[in-house]
Design a protein that fits this description.
Length: 315
């Protein structure tokens, strides 16, 4: 066994050197995770370039690397209470989705630092909320909340644009008013809905009444038209019938002759012989009385036969 003190000193020195080298190598290593970039500071001065995700080396004791996220991030602010334009208290939480662009990380770190959320985002969120809420009435905040959120996002973006922070979306979770005011708003909304429903029902009744009146009017008009058509048809048929009778009469009148008239008269004779008395101044002082014999039943007399029979009756 070597008891030389110099050997022990050398071993200690070499051990210290190894430890120093190991610590230096370990300190020189930098790993940047996914969705992050590394901002390099040399003797406390930030550089303009950033390190992408991966494994890198730095100069120990001279350089330092601060990692910053470039992913979408969520900032929440709770317990806000702001007065509206009509002096009602609006209680709400605020949720903001935001992101820092990769090319702006070095500038943001240089101007504000790694704690930019507390330095820049929180004051901007509170200030924009106070500004927007004070411009709207309580009813407007209830009925037009999407439009109010759009205005709030635009106002917040205007405050954070100089810091190179992009506002992606905003929310007002758990928003409400005082219980008494909420109850009054609910009652007013119920009354408004009842008024709208009553107006709608009245309009429906008017529409039904007008429809019934139109149906009755159409029905009456149809009946009247039917009666007019029926009367017109009846009158037309009567005119046609009269015209036919007139035409028949005209044809019949044109075809009648004295002999044919006598023939028609004989057809209407009932068989009784008429008696005729002729006044005179005979020796008896009584006029002659004679009869006209009835024509034979068959054959049918002709005008010539009638003419022959007439002298016989006179004898």
């Amino acid at each position: 066994m070597n008891n030389d003190p110099r050997v022990a000193v050398k071993m200690v020195v070499w051990l210290v050197v190894v430890l120093i080298l190991a610590g230096t190598i370990w300190e020189a290593q930098v790993q940047v995770g996914p969705g992050q970039v590394g901002v390099v500071t040399t003797l406390g001065s930030p550089g303009k370039d950033t390190l992408a995700a991966g494994f890198h080396f730095k100069v120990p004791l001279v350089q330092n690397v601060t990692t910053m996220s470039i992913k979408q991030q969520l900032y929440t602010f709770t317990g806000s209470a702001d007065l509206t334009a009509d002096r009602q208290t609006f209680y709400t939480d605020v949720a903001v989705n935001y992101q820092v662009n990769k090319q702006d990380v070095a500038t943001l770190f240089t101007n504000i630092g790694a704690d930019y959320v507390d330095v820049a985002i929180q004051p901007a969120v509170e200030g924009a909320l106070h500004t927007v809420v004070s411009q709207h009435s309580a009813v407007d905040l209830i009925t037009n909340l999407p439009r109010v959120l759009t205005q709030y996002q635009e106002t917040l973006q205007a405050k954070l644009t100089p810091d190179n922070i992009q506002v992606l979306q905003v929310y007002f979770p758990n928003n409400h008013f005082d219980a008494a005011y909420t109850a009054s708003i609910l009652a007013a909304q119920v009354a408004q809905q009842n008024l709208i429903r009553a107006g709608y029902e009245q309009q429906q009744r008017v529409i039904v009444a007008r429809t019934d009146a139109n149906v009755a009017n159409i029905t009456a008009q149809g009946l009247a038209n039917a009666r007019v058509s029926q009367a017109h048809g009846y009158a037309t048929s009567r005119v046609l019938e009269a015209q036919a009778d007139a035409d028949a009469q005209r044809l019949l009148t044109g075809s009648l002759t004295p002999l044919y008239v006598q023939y028609l008269m004989s057809q209407k004779w009932n068989g009784a012989l008429p008696q005729y008395s002729i006044g005179g101044t005979g020796s008896s002082g009584v006029g002659a009385l004679f009869s006209i014999p009835a024509p034979a039943a068959t054959p049918t007399p002709t005008p010539s036969a009638t003419a022959t029979a007439e002298p016989t009756a006179r004898r």
